[in-house]
Amino acid sequence: MHERAGTPAIESDLIDVEALIRAYYELKPDASVPEQRVVFGTSGHRGSSLTTSFNEDHILATTQAIVEYRAAQGITGPLFIGADTHALSAPAQTTALDVLVGNRVRVLADEFDDYVPTPALSHAILTWNNDPAKRAEGEADGIVITPSHNPPQDGGFKYNPPHGGPADSDATSWIAARANELIAGGLREVNQAEPSGVETYDFRGAYVDDLANAIDFEAIRRSGIRIGADPLGGASVSYWGAIRDRYGLDLTVVNERVDPRWSFMTLDWDGKIRMDPSSRNAMASVVAQAGSYDLLTGNDADADRHGIVTPDGGLMNPNHYLAVAIEYLFAHRDGWRPDAAIGKTLVSSSMIDRVAAALGRRLWEVPVGFKWFVPGLVDGSVGFGGEESAGASFLRFDGTVWTTDKDGILLCLLAAEIRAVTGKSPSELYAELVDRFGDPAYERVDAPANAAQKAALGKLDGDAITATELAGAPITAKLSKAPGNDAAIGGVKVETADAWFAARPSGTEDVYKIYAESFRGEEHLRLVQAEAKRIVDAALGG
Questions:
Q1: Total Cβ atoms within 10 A of residue 338
Q2: Interatomic CA distance for residues 317 and 299, integer angstroms
Q3: DSSP code of 266?
Q4: Which of 34, 65, 160, 516 falls between 20 and 30 A from 129, CA-CA?
Q5: Which of 43, 53, 148, 350 is an active site residue?
Q6: Would you say 502 and 347 are in contact if contact means Cβ atoms under 8 Å apart?
Q7: What are phi and psi of 533, to 5 degrees?
């Protein structure tokens, strides 16, 4: 933990915005250098112009690759485009528009030149494609320009195909390979033109007006609860005021500042500025106001993550809130299919498993990555999909799809509905779950691993683990594929009756991540973590 974690940023912590943007245009990547290539992770290509990992050439090439990909897939409708408040997002959007217009792609940008949250873009794609008349003009897809909660010097570029959610690995692998090929070829095959004739779309109006089909605003308004919403300087900044005005809520936007340096933030655990609404350190200034509201919420820069703060519990652990949200939703959404499943990533808390069992609902456990929830959300077979990293979405009242990407605004509003309908805060409701099912201790830690070890872990078969016990209990499962969809998890998960761990390689650092949980307390969790490292190291030959 950094010595200044949770304290306000000072001048020396802030980026030089002019230098960052200058580097975006001036520094040219070398496609033969791995660190300077286009690489799509679970949430698109990310990097910084200062390290030549997110520059104009990257966006020129990636946009051209997306144009070619969508043409090959027969996608002929409009492409929705939006950007968040990071300093590199605006120049990246201008670059992308140059290429899209140069390739005669019909583009829809924000009508008010506003920032566009990730869920609003997903909502726009689905709204178009679910309208038969619009769909007859061709399927729509989209680009959202954001590195999510990453520090101010970073940029991000993400493609959402016609299903509205994150592109799968087949699409992103092709796009990245083609983009790097274009860079290596000197960008000679990239078509550009002045971005004129770009059409517009009211992302904010369409999204806010439609929220009534997913959230019980009448209950919130009738309850009179006081809500504080902090956009953390992100893309939801004008959305919260619009939601307040549209639905007559007692809602205060506690911080309306937009500053690409994020000078108003408190530092995260490592001393960096990071807009993570699930971090107690990054949210310190928000949590300090908890007593002034019945509910206080936060979102990250593209509003795909949520942070829930209550007067009695402070900032909720994301796993705790997911469990509460699931129990509430499946008891208050009569329009959902009776067989609609509960979706969770395999590193999310087993409290969710116990809630699902009590509800008599099928648990659908998938690998890390929100893309896995997309098919189930689209057809209504999954009512809720959630990740331990504070990302989730769920269906409309009638059981049809809302968004297929994470929606932090929706989950914050759900917390207000829960408070209004039950008369209890989400943290009070979690305490009731603890009384019924036990109190799990959960933590993620990192362990060192070189490139070869990370590669081996990513391909490790659960059967390669020879251990029969974990922290004094018989091992009941050794998984290398997710139970919900049989997809490879890129690591392993080992379970007992009351504890588990999962190990996955980091995509950016020389470490592997150990997620662990125990229903037998903190001391037992430490034992699980220590044995997890020994088990994994032995399987890797370390």
A1: 8
A2: 14
A3: B
A4: 65
A5: 148
A6: yes
A7: -65, -45
Maximum alpha-carbon separation in the chain: 67
Q: List phi, psi (to 5°) of 141.
A: -140, -165
Structure tokens at 423: 């008369």
Structure tokens at 405: 């990407």
Where is 152: in which H helix or E strand? none
Pair of tokens at residue 231: 């956009």
How far CA 346 is from CA of 119, 190, 490, 518, in Å, comes to: 23, 40, 11, 15
Task: Count the alpha carbons within 13 Å of 302 in the hemisphere toward its beta carbon.
Answer: 31
Q: Which residue has the tokens 């370390």?
A: 542
Tell me the helix, strand and coil percentages in the chain, rounded to 5: 40, 20, 40
How many CB atoms sit inside 10 A of residue 320's CB?
22
Q: Which residue has the tokens 């290539």?
A: 37
- CA–CA separation, 309 vs 326, rounded Å? 18
User: Whose CA is closest to 165, among 338, 396, 406?
Assistant: 406
What is the C-alpha to C-alpha distance for residues 284 and 230, in angstroms, rounded to an integer? 12
Amino acid at 452: A
Angstrom distance (rounded) from CA 355 to CA 339: 15
182 three-state secondary structure: helix
Structure tokens at 528: 């699980």
Amino acid of residue 377: L
Q: What is the pLDDT of residues 163-190, one digit of tens each?
A: 999 999 999 999 999 999 999 999 999 9
Instruction: Please give the single-letter amino acid code of residue 327.
Output: E
Lookup result for tokens 């399987």 = 539
Q: What is the pLDDT of residues 219-232, one digit of tens each?
A: 999 999 999 999 99
Report the C-alpha gap between 242 and 244 in whole angstroms.
5
Q: Using 50, 70 and 90 to split pLDDT, how confident is the model at 542?
A: low
Distance separating the N- and C-terminal Cα atoms of the chain: 28
In what order do the strands lie in the sheet containing 295-299? 251-253, 227-230, 295-299, 306-310, 314-315
Between CA 506 and CA 389, with CA 270 as vertex, the angle to 5 degrees is: 50
Between CA 247 and CA 220 the distance in angstroms is: 9
d(CA 368, CA 371): 9
SS3 408: helix
The β-bridge relationship of strands 511-518 and 306-310 is unpaired
Give strand pairing partners of 385: 343, 393
pTM of the model: 0.96
Model confidence pLDDT, tens digit, residues 458-511: 999 988 899 999 999 999 999 999 999 999 999 999 999 999 999 999 776 678
425 is catalytic: no
- Give the CB-side neighbour count of residue 510, counting CA atoms within 13 A: 5
Alpha-carbon distance of 478 to 463, in angstroms, equals: 7
